């Protein structure tokens, strides 16, 4: 049933409940060797819980976990071949950086030379050699997180687990360390499972993203697919900033009617079998896919609107207009110098839009 | 007469002046130290201090006086003939019941009771607290609740059952019996203390150590214990003072050969024979109180820090 040659981490019908609260529900997930998977979702969606289950820090209520083909559901964390990095760094405060790095190796009873060798290699990789004899209290946030990554690194594991590792850092450091983690992944080529609520981290790091909500994976796909073809309203609204426009209306024989405005969406790539569907629907358009002014006339859907609010962001401008009576946000070039009250032509290509069933929220 | 240049400098100076006044000290006017409020407050505090310190003063002066001087009656007067005789008598030759060796045997008995009781109770409670926080088992919350409930049961209720228990174990009337009883009675409060402290540490530390492969004892000794100095100090102080000051368990369980200092002090002070020697009584009391007093003075600051640390989170 499980192909050992391809899956590094495999989760089968995993369930977990705390009392009557079901945190994970019949979860299935296959992670390939060397893959970078990001678990993304709002607070309380169960992403950290799932990671803790994989690490063996939480006992599951049902289902199995396989790592490198071995059923580890009831194994101790140390026997699972995993290394873990925590949001709060979790460095042992009374130990020096060197002792922190080597703790796991000393527990495992490795010979001294081997420990020194591995600590040296990891500290070189993460450029923390000058810090080896310091205590964690004397390190900055970024340095602490490097040490925490190093602690996972020295253990020579198959699977790295990251639990929101960058959330405690400021924006600049976060960007730096993000690149660092990506570089590390390219160099080590081992499996990484990374939990975050930051969609930028997810988009930039992941080979595949698993978007979670209420203990269920909503969509598991590449960042590109998740961004361009979200499977439901939740995923569509969660990914992207500013958020996708949701226009309520009716879908009738390949035209979308919203508040009397008729939008021909012939070019939209319907899910197989849905081409002739007539239903209450929601049309999703990303603000950055909206064309403004002359350019709008070149795409199948275009309409006239009046700008209400303008938010200059420097590189570009977010503006608020209306389609019919419904709010419609779009991103425009800052050079256009948009003004509130200005009449403007807006348009978008239906091929890049998403249509969802208003009742179920699923992509049509 | 004034050329434009000086005029402009004047203007500039004015500007600087106004800047200075704007940048000067501001905020509400500082209050004088002696406000009526403060005078009343400090007077009350001062009187309260005197009230508490007077008995101590009387004890110390009396212990350095001779008996004739005490009989003279002026208890607040400082000693005219300063003598340490009462202290040495209290330590080595005052009569405690049948024997007349002073408090010194009691002191050593107390030490023999104190050190093992403090170490055992603190060590067991630390492991208890750590286990209750980090290695939750089915019913661990109930176990903890029962333990805490135990601290509300009056000692007297458990006294006789414990006498029977220690008698059955064959240790009644020996020092191990007192040690056992102290360890049992210290358990609820100390466990609560350690549990709260360990609960206040970030749980990720424990998880990280688990991932690193460390087990129950290794995490306890290498990760948790080195971080718990403040709370260990609090536990030590509580236990040292509590056990040192104990009278009841000592008199019941220790046996006549092993009576602790507090019991012997009682025997000196309440001795029915001869005239009461107030100076010896006072000196003996001071001697007995010295240990907890020293502990408080030496560790005051650590104690406060530890209590604050243990108070975080329930």
Residue share in helix of chain B: over 70%
Task: Give the low-confidence spans of chain A.
Answer: none
Strand order of the largest sheet of chain A: 6-7-8-3-9-10
**N-to-C SSE series of chain A?**
EEEHEEEHHHEHEHEEHHEEEEEEEEEEE
Radius of gyration of chain A: 24 Å
Estimated radius of gyration of chain B: 30 Å
What is the CATH architecture descriptor of the largest domain in chain A? Answer: 3-Layer(aba) Sandwich
CATH top level assignment of the domain at 104-311 in chain B: Mainly Alpha
GO cellular component, one term (chain B): plasma membrane
Membrane topology (chain B): Multi-pass membrane protein
Domain ABC transmembrane type-1 (chain B): 107-299
Transmembrane segments (chain B): 39-60, 113-133, 142-163, 169-194, 215-238, 282-304
Mind explaining what this structure looks like?
Chain B: It comes from Pelagibacterium luteolum. Chain B: Its main location: membrane. Chain B: InterPro entries: MetI-like, MetI-like_sf. Chain B: It is a multi-pass membrane protein. Chain B: It is found in: Cell membrane. The complex is a heterodimer of chains A (about 375) and B (about 325). Chain A has about 375 residues and is of the alpha+beta class. Chain A folds into 2 domains: about 5-235, 3-Layer(aba) Sandwich (Rossmann fold); about 245-355, OB fold (Dihydrolipoamide Acetyltransferase, E2P), CATH 2.40.50. Chain A is about 25% helix and about 35% strand. Chain A has 8 helices and 21 strands. In chain A, strands 6-7-8-3-9-10 form a 6-stranded mixed sheet, sandwiched between helices. Chain A has a 5-stranded antiparallel sheet with strand order 13-12-11-14-21. The longest helix of chain A is centred in the middle third of the chain and has 18 residues, at about 170-190. Mean pLDDT of chain B is about 85; it is low at about 1-10 and about 10-20. Chain B has helices at about 5-25, 35-65, 65-70, 85-90, 105-135, 140-150, 155-170, 175-200, 205-210, 215-225, 230-245, 250-255, 260-270, 280-310. By secondary structure, chain B is mainly alpha-helical. The relative contact order of chain B is 0.12. Chain B has a domain at about 105-310: MetI-like fold. In chain B, helix 5 (about 105-135) runs antiparallel to helix 13 (about 260-270). The interface of A and B includes residues 56, 83 and 107 of A.
